[in-house]
Records
---
Amino acid sequence: MSEFGNYKLLIRETHIDSYGHVNNATYLSLYEEARWEAITPRGFGFNDIHRLQQGPVILEVNIKFLKEIKLRENITIVSSIMDYEGKIGHMKQQMIKDDGTVASEAVFTFGLFDLKARKMILPTPEWRKACGLE
């Protein structure tokens, strides 16, 4: 497994639902935020995607909610590539509390999408670099 991102954040009021913990849909938004923060400085940000006409797509996700995350807790989202064979890769992301507890874990099936041809393509050298594979 190849780790390519650690994103620290504070859980804010907008992340919380009426039960006092992070809303289930918010987990996906936070995971996405962490992915953008990992690939953007590696040359695959929003503007780069539109310039290259290639961008990442999520094909499937399996998410586990293991421990509550409450208001004003600090978490770190760790992103790792599990494998990438052909056009399809698998990435694991975990939300880890300050005490080391894994609060959530998600496995994403993803790939690189050609915006002009409207189809999945093999990972380019630029995309492999963005994913921490080169």
---
Amino acid sequence: MRQIILDTETTGLEWKKGNRIVEIGCVELLERRPTGRTFHQYINPQREFEQGAAEVTGLSLDFLADKPLFAGIADEFLAFIDGAELIIHNAAFDIGFLDYELSLLGPSYGRMHDRVRVEDSLLLARQRFPGQRNSLDALCKRLGVDNTHRQLHGALLDAQLLCDVYLNLTAGQREIGFAGVEETETASAATFVFTAAIAAPRPRVQPDAEELAAHQARLEKLRKKAGGVCLWDALEGTQEAVATVV
């Protein structure tokens, strides 16, 4: 599988207000291994930064004045990412800006989802670490990724850090759920042959009275915090699921 870790920097937070991309950074992975290939480009946005945006990136309009427009780098960028799976932290932000930039070039460029698949590493982090801070800096600290050299936001630097974070975040992905799977290599990618062991019955655990009481107490706390509404209560067959936890 070919994956591209991608990050962008922009003149502001919302493309709907006319903000533009000022930097793109990409790191290529092949079968979850960095290939050493990267894409990095500063871009002249042809507009001012919003308040605070320039300080976050350390970029200025003077520095970007002689850089190419997005139109000038679009084809090279698209050739680099075409057909890959993009790994992006808070993907909706970057994809929104990239789709906006493509729309300014005309309908023939289409949208990002026409060209690539997208995996949001922020959603992956929230699933693994619910209720915790899952910014890139927080994940670097939690997963042991050295980011001491990150003083400012930079697209290529952040893509390189996200690469390490993503690989740590999904380390064991091949082990979980793939017990009893025989791996074979093809010329282009790894494929999996499932054996009968994968269909073996899973162990069933029956909670005792104390565990059920603790579960109900926890739900009651959630109901109080949420104004009497708890997502668990809305699930179909909740009571039966509580009585037979798998």
---
Amino acid sequence: MSLSVLTIVRNRPGHLVQLVKGLQRSSVLPDELIVVDMGSDSPVVLEDLPFPARVVWMDGGRLPLAAARNAAARSASGDHLLFLDVDCIPMRGLICAVQGVLASHNALVCAKVLYLGPDEARAEWDEQDLFKRAAPHPARSFPGQGVRSEDNAGLFWSLVFGITRQRFFALGGFDEEFVGYGAEDTDFGFRAKAAGVPLLFMGGPGAFHQFHQTFDPPLQHLDDIVSNAGTFHRRWGIWPMEGWLKAFAEMGLVALSEDAITLLRPASCDELAQADSSRRSH
């Protein structure tokens, strides 16, 4: 079975370089790499690689995460699809491991992610050295090896996951009613569960998450998160991204009730500065 690696990017050239470097070092090379450029200021250009690779350009607008992932999947030819966020560096054994799981499980497969600090994987790096420096996600546990079935569809993440091409399109891909940032991946996980698709957490090789500027809570995506949360709630009857929504409410940015959310005002410059990780000590 062939495997396509899919990634989407806007203005993250340094991260993309390291993702590609990880693919080049893989024990099993991908059959192709598809990069969707969501309107970067400087268009993405790929160097000559030991596997087929191409860039698909799409008009950016509001960060079109759902539409971009779907465009990547439509452009892919592989029987298996491995979605990697551009800030993820695949470990050497990731492709082989995902291929093995998808060959025996028609499932949604999430791989573990280890988080790097601000100084790691900025130029040359060694995978074993990154292991010593990286930290696991505090809210998601993965088996040491093999796979574990996960019943909580809300724990699906789009950072690094595998799925068969046939299953992805049978699910309808990501719902493009979600525009911009937030909840499109949780909705995909919920729809997969509703369709009877198992969610598996895979042990063994995964990916390293490269450090980048973040906002906590993500005030830069306030409008999108509020809009997409409303879409999700109408569909599933619960609030996604609950921690962020509660933080917005505590700041007086939104009015949140059991069944409604209303944007009250935009975040101020001071609030954005306080939430900006690049302005806090590491």
---
Amino acid sequence: MAPKSPAQSLLEKADKKANASTGWFGSSSTKFEEAGDLYQQAANSFKIDKMFKEAGDCFAREAECREKCKEANDAANAWWNSAKAYKRGYPELAIQALSQTIVHFTQGGRFRQAADREKEIGQIYLQEQNDLRRACESFERAGDWYAQEDAIATANACFKDAADLHADLEEYPAAIARYEQVADHSLGSALTKYSVKEYWLRALLCCLAIPDVVTARRYMTKYSGMDTTFSSTREAKFIGALIDALDAGDQEAFTAAVFEFDQVVKLDNWKTAILLKIKRGIQDEPGLT
């Protein structure tokens, strides 16, 4: 029989301690505190062996011991360590562990930390599970918590990510509302005012994807009233050209406007995807050139 690994030996000690009787004079709090320490040691030992599922399990057991000792901060930290281990190949378990961390942070009024973990959940849903709906919900929840903690720039980044996902889900009115929210916040600061034209561009592209050219024209006027420099920007002129092409049903003019804009401002994947949807509204063609 192969000898037990140090991690396995520590796990057995932890289990034995957690399940031991406290006797007449023993303290259950002390028992679980010592068991928690052993689970933590076992978890770190499993991490050394690159056994991340086992490490995550041990950190989760540590967290449960900390909870039995009413050590909320230590429990939250253990759940987070569990999530970090689970993120190495076990995304659903990582989400569950992060959710437990958030419970402790929100109960303790630590909403900035809760927002950090909720944002992590959103990233896992997006990157590991391709679950746009749940990712969007997590980014919006994180954004709300950042905003109430006055971390406005971080909140706006989450709301922008949520807006992009609303658009990917073809929930264009919700996307427009989020882009406008971020733009409104950004207008008030000289440091972020430069980015407003990007948010308005995305909102206007969502209008054209509905498609609703009338609303797009109205929003162009609205945005120009909020910032008199907007109408002279490359983004506004681009939208104007797209609106004219859509009004005329001119696919060639649409493609030419996209090509010209892309020569100066390289289109990202999000813009390319939504422009494809808009173009298909003119005529059912497979791609942009």
